[in-house]
Write a structure and sequence with these properties.
The protein is an alpha/beta fold and about 575 residues long. About 60% of the residues lie in helices and about 10% in strands.
Length: about 575
Amino acid sequence: MIAAPPPLGIEERVHRAQVAALFRNLAASTLADVVLAWSVVALFWWQLRDTGVLVWWGLHTLQTARYPFLSRWHRDPQAHERSAHWARLHVREHSLYSLTWGLAPWCFLPLDNQPLTALLMLVMLGLCSAGVPATASRWASVLAFTLPMVLGLTSALAWRGDTLHLFLAVCCLVYLAATLLFARNLHRLLTEALRTRFEKEALAEQLAEQMAITRRASEDKTRFFAAASHDLRQPLHAIALFGAVLERELQGRAALAHAQRLMGAVRALGNSLDTMLDVSRLDAGVIEPERRPFALADVLTALLPLFASRAEEAGLQLRIRASGLWVYSDPQLLQRLLANLVENAIKYTPRGGVLVVARARGSKAWVEVVDTGVGIAPEHAERVFDEFYQVDNPGRDRTRGLGMGLAIVRRLAALLEHPLQLRSRPGQGTRFRLELPAAEAPRLAAAPEPVQPEPALMQRLPQHVLLIEDETDIAQATGALLDGWGIQLTAVDGEARAAEALTRQRFDALICDFRLAEGADGLLVAQRLRERYAPRLPLLLVTGETAPDRLLRLRDAGVPVLYKPVDPAQLRRALGELIAA
């Protein structure tokens, strides 16, 4: 395996960019120089008929013929890696080029023709000025290009010895000093611009690398929690089912209290896992809001029976001021959001009370949850919305929750597109404000007849159920539970045995685990079995998966899903709904 080359430093990048700038316009500048040189030769030969003109023309042509040596930079696949070599070559060739022009006044500077002298000075000094920006990226190239040319002109003028030529020589030296000062400042400016550019690129690369590391860490964390959650849910699901069987069999006995306490602990742990599942489902985009106009009072009044007894046990006043406002949102998700806020308020309010109130504000409706609790310090105001973050709970007291309530609140508010504001003062309380779009109440809103749900004990249940589950303890627990409901369960551990069972017997429902042995996909297994043996067989998936990609797949499948650990009452209701459907 070939090791990757080490990353380039800032100075190395700057050097390579400088050398590349030297060669970028070399062909165009050489062509312009050839045209200029030949024009000068033609003019001076026509005016002077001096053989020195032809001598200089030969020298310039010989130097120009060396251009292919410089043009090889464009065809060199390792030009950037060999930038030091090409930088030295550029300095050498431009020194010879400048020296050639510096010999021009020695070859054909006229003695008594001031117009031609001025013209030659204008050409050479103008050529010097034009070439400085092209070579300013490298200071050594600037010196190689300007010094031989201008010093050659200056010495040739000074050699004449008369006052006029000495004055012109001094002018050339002043011009040279000014040009070098300008070139030096330009070189520094270009170098600093390149250094700033590459420093920004280096910072961007470091930022991209850190983002990639963070993304990989987040993905690893998601996979870890998904795997850990699944592995925890499997035995907990069996415990919940066996516990329900024990509760049923211990009715009327003293040991029933122990079974009930066991089930209470199981439900508490199940609620904690379900809270993390809610976060995973929100992050995965599985939950889609169903927005519609509705009376806000219906949602607010539904909160009272959920928290009245808990507030009373804590010695708090819970006041909910219903209003005639109508809003446009998803009533179920909104109730869930507000329930989390009220629960959080009760949890962190040692005395006083909690108020839930709604107000109309133009085209908006404000719903506020206000408490007189401990409040939130400014440094914690943003972090309280992070997962597992709790203020003043270093011991992770489980009676105070997992620290996921406000994390779910923030996700639900973003999902519903309802801006959420937090105002709090330590020791005085907290106010959460939710902004909802107001809706118009219908002019004639007849109250619908309430639909009374069928009692669980009177619900029609399937008589014969096929279960595909590779965990033996879960299969046994499910069989014991369903047996108490008068349901005959046939449990198999894979697709082949399920196919055999379907060929021998007719079933009223199929329950299938989403993840089967050896990574088999329970959804695909169930779909193949239904397609081949019983197309109309009702299907219920049971899973402990919380990975976002799998949650999305379950949502898109459109199949009823229960998440482990499954509450027995929830399982009974789901089986009844399968038969009713």
